[in-house]
Q: What sequence folds into this?
């Protein structure tokens, strides 16, 4: 099936919120949108969403131009409030323009033009033969052996213990000062400020409300089950 570009508009009737986007494909290929926020809401309650096709049968370049036209109609203060869109700029990836589309092979071939070829087997054999028979110097050997960690002897442990005792006695070694902890009032004030700033974020607030709804439904279902069991026991 031949692909084409189109611009679409989603509407969430529960929160009266919109989402504008574009897609290269077909209107019935199952594509939803690129917004994680809207996809999560759609997966929870797809019955509340309706899509409308604004423009169709567009080229890649025309698709992003038309999308930007609808973005220009949205006010900045409506972002995250009336729209699921978080940005008002149309993305223009490299594949939006036919002249910039290249296969992986063409890109690799173009990047390697004018550069030296990889090492041939003959060249590798010549380098290996040149390095054979060369002995390491004493300085090089000493440097390599010094890298390995040697185990501490009993004499070193005894000397280190005496050195640390002397440092404790003369005051050069001291215990670290304990970190100051916040009072209960400061902790409550900081916690309330953080919660206030979080609840001002509509994405975070929507997630928290959904968690509260799910937990409340679980508690009610469990209460209903327990009540039904009690009634069955009374009947029997």
A:
């Amino acid at each position: 099936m031949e692909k084409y570009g189109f611009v679409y508009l989603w509407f969430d009737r529960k929160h009266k919120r919109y989402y504008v986007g574009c897609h290269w494909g077909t209107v019935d290929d199952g594509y939803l949108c690129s917004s994680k926020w809207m996809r999560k809401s759609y997966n929870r309650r797809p019955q509340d969403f309706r899509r409308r096709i604004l423009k169709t049968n567009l080229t890649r370049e025309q698709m992003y131009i038309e999308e930007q036209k609808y973005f220009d109609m949205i006010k900045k203060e409506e972002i995250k409030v009336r729209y699921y869109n978080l940005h008002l700029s149309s993305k223009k990836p490299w594949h939006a323009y036919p002249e910039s589309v290249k296969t992986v092979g063409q890109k690799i071939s173009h990047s390697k033009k004018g550069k030296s070829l990889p090492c041939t087997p003959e060249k590798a054999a010549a380098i290996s033969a040149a390095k054979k028979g060369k002995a390491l110097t004493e300085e090089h050997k000493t440097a390599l052996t010094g890298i390995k960690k040697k185990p501490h002897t009993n004499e070193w442990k005894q000397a280190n213990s005496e050195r640390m005792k002397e440092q404790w006695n003369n005051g050069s070694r001291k215990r670290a000062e304990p970190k100051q902890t916040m009072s209960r009032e400061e902790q409550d004030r900081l916690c309330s400020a953080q919660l206030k700033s979080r609840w001002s974020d509509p994405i975070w607030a929507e997630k928290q409300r959904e968690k509260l709804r799910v937990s409340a439904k679980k508690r009610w279902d469990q209460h209903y089950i327990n009540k039904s069991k009690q009634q069955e026991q009374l009947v029997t």
User: Anything to note?
Assistant: Residues 191-235 form one domain. Helices lie at 36-44, 60-71, 104-112, 121-131, 138-147, 154-170, 184-199, 202-235. The mean pLDDT is 83.
